[in-house]
Specification:
The structure holds 2 protein chains of 2 kinds. By secondary structure, chain A is mainly alpha-helical. By secondary structure, chain B is mainly alpha-helical. The chains are: A mainly alpha, B mainly alpha. Chains A and B meet through helix 1, helix 7, helix 8, helix 12 and helix 13 of A and helix 4, helix 5, helix 8, helix 9 and helix 11 of B.
């Protein structure tokens, strides 16, 4: 019952997101062809291509038929043609995707682990100077927009004190192989990754700190202490176990912030992933590419959130179905 | 339950938040009437260092950076205030209103909120903005459209609590009508929750407005801190970043921080009551 409802909600949300790409260009005054493809693209197209696009979007037919054509091409994974790269949008994106996935995976892992450790340590010392310091520091950091964290790190460690390269993912024409190549990749990854971790750690930290504080007086901790367990074991084996899973799943629901952050951080560092591609698509007014990137990001987030919400009560049996949408427990 | 905000925000984080917000509000208001130069006018040589004529110097095409900063404050605060009010209105109408009316209206609005909450507002707003290249007014509409389910859910939960609370039941037994209950009991007691939600929305709106402009997904004729940062990033190899790149970045950060501090201050208000 719950799963069916959830599935319906996500299906409708997915439908709404996809329809944005259909409704919005047609809401704008003027030729929807121009709104979908942009004026520059329209000018550079041959008449045959225009006819082909009219046919594909069924632009000369009724709205319902147009919508059918639109949904049909989306379902086939056809996001349109990028006129700037002169390649299907899907293929352009797969070329840039690996770098974004590297950045996303690494930052998700590091910010989750460090947020967890800091939150646990901070929460179990609630009220101490250490706790207050870390809390204030991370609250402040969490308020700085992602792209400005990136900008500050860029200024600090690449401009003023040139420890790391200014941008890119590898040294262009470096001709590096093997270990030298791996180290080069890591050096380029360091600053964007650090910016993302710094900007995104606060959510996980707060979730862990809150649940730690809520559990501080629980009987199972008293039992562990009276058995003679040492504090570190209690903190990580007993307390940590009941804190990590719910906090990590809730953090999974904040994935959209990470994705938005990645798009912006990549622009700061010229990291050749989806964010940089987005910026290039904007500069060239390559609309199909632009929409493909954002649609892919939203759909990916939607998919992950759905899985997280499905698994939530299974991973943490304490969560009853009534409060599945309540992420921040105090 | 009825809280005196002025008193509660006079100390602690809320106080600092109000001061910061006041500072930017003053600059934004001043920006409506007068800026040293027209923000998009070419007023001198390119890349001038700060001086008495140009407080923050000039950018790569000789526009006055301080004037742009003032105009950016106007856009940022305007969008934040607009989006939080519009989202609060929709949330109150559909969340609290649905809970009060009950029946199929309640079921429908609840379902709308459930679905809305599933959609990630940041990415959805970016997607919508990419199609529309929005002016600040359109942006307010987009943000409100994706923000309201969050506000609505909180207001709905609070309304359900209030509907069954002591004072409301008592008033009802004395024969109070629906309108009277709404005006005298429910709306005033929704205020603390509503204000917290509005502050939260305003903070997200400032962040998103700057972020969208930073990515270039906004009306290019409107001044924005995000756009300033984007343009200045291309010139990090010159010294200009000190007065071109840092000020708008610090501006966004302090404004986001101001809303966060006020939010924390209001939360502490809740906790102590």
């Amino acid at each position: 019952m719950r799963v069916a409802r959830l599935l319906m909600d996500y299906a409708i949300a997915f439908f709404i997101l996809c329809s944005l790409g259909f409704v919005l260009p047609r809401l704008l005054p003027g030729d929807p062809f121009l709104a979908i493809y942009g004026e520059e693209a329209a000018l550079s197209m041959t008449p045959e291509m225009k006819v082909e696009i009219y046919r594909r979007f069924a632009l000369d037919q009724s709205w319902t038929e147009q919508f059918g054509a639109y949904v049909g091409s989306l379902l086939r994974g056809d996001l349109g043609w990028s006129y700037f790269f002169n390649t299907p949008v899907m293929r352009v994106m797969t070329g840039f995707l690996p770098w974004t996935l590297l950045l996303a995976g690494a930052s998700l892992l590091i910010s989750t682990v460090s947020g967890f450790v800091l939150g646990l340590e901070s929460g179990s010392r609630k009220g101490s100077r250490w706790d207050k310091g870390v809390f204030a520091g991370l609250m402040l950091l969490g308020g700085v927009p992602d792209f400005f964290v990136g900008t500050l790190l860029l200024l600090g460690f690449a401009v003023i004190w040139p420890l790391f390269p200014l941008g890119g993912a590898t040294t262009v024409y470096g001709g590096l192989t093997g270990w030298a190549w791996a180290i080069d990749v890591l050096r380029h990854l360091a600053l964007p990754l650090a910016s993302l971790v710094l900007a995104r750690m606060t959510t996980m930290y707060l979730l862990c700190r809150n649940s730690t504080v809520a559990l501080l007086r629980s009987p199972f901790l008293r039992t562990a202490r009276s058995k003679g367990c040492d504090e570190v074991a209690i903190r990580y084996r007993h307390l940590g176990r009941s804190v990590l899973l719910p906090a990590a799943t809730s953090a999974g629901l904040h994935l959209s912030h990470l994705f938005a952050g990645i798009l912006m951080i990549e622009v700061v560092f010229g990291y050749p992933g989806m964010g940089t591609l987005l910026q290039r698509a904007l500069a060239a007014r390559d609309y199909p590419l632009l929409q493909g990137i954002l649609l892919l990001a939203s759909v990916a987030v939607l998919g992950v959130n759905f899985i997280v919400e499905l698994l939530y009560p299974i991973l943490d049996p304490r969560v009853k179905t009534v409060c599945t949408s309540n992420t921040g427990k105090n | 339950m009825h809280i005196q905000y002025g008193k509660k925000l006079k100390s602690g984080p809320g106080h600092w938040g109000l001061l910061l917000l006041g500072f930017w509000a003053a600059i934004a208001l001043a920006g409506f009437f007068v800026t040293p130069y027209a923000p998009d006018a070419y007023t001198g040589k390119a890349f001038l260092a700060p001086s008495s004529a140009h407080w923050l110097g000039t950018n790569d095409v000789g526009q006055d950076i301080f004037s742009q900063l003032m105009a950016g404050a106007r856009t940022s605060l305007g969008v934040a205030v607009g989006a939080s009010i519009a989202s609060a209105f929709l949330g109150a109408l559909l969340g609290a209103g649905g809970a009060l009316v009950g029946g199929w209206v309640e079921r429908l609005t609840m379902r709308m909120m459930d679905i809305g909450l599933v959609i990630p507002p940041i990415l959805a707003a970016m997607l919508a903005a990419a199609y529309l290249q929005p002016s600040p007014v359109t942006l307010v509409g987009i943000l409100a459209f994706f923000f309201w389910p969050g506000t609505g859910r909180i207001l709905r939960a609070q309304t359900l609590l209030l509907r069954e609370s002591g004072p409301v039941t008592a008033a009802r037994t004395f024969g109070a009508g629906r309108g009277y209950l709404l005006r005298r009991h429910i709306l005033p007691d929704l205020a603390p929750v509503l204000s917290a939600a509005m502050i939260h929305d305003a903070r997200r709106a400032v962040f998103l407005e700057a972020g969208l402009a930073f990515l270039g997904i906004s009306d290019p004729t409107v001044q924005s801190w995000g756009r300033m940062i984007q343009q200045a990033l291309a010139f990090t190899y010159l010294d200009v970043w000190q007065w071109w790149l840092l000020p708008p970045g610090i501006a966004v950060t302090t404004l986001v921080l101001a809303f966060a501090l006020i939010g924390t201050g209001l939360e502490e208000t809740h906790a102590s009551d």
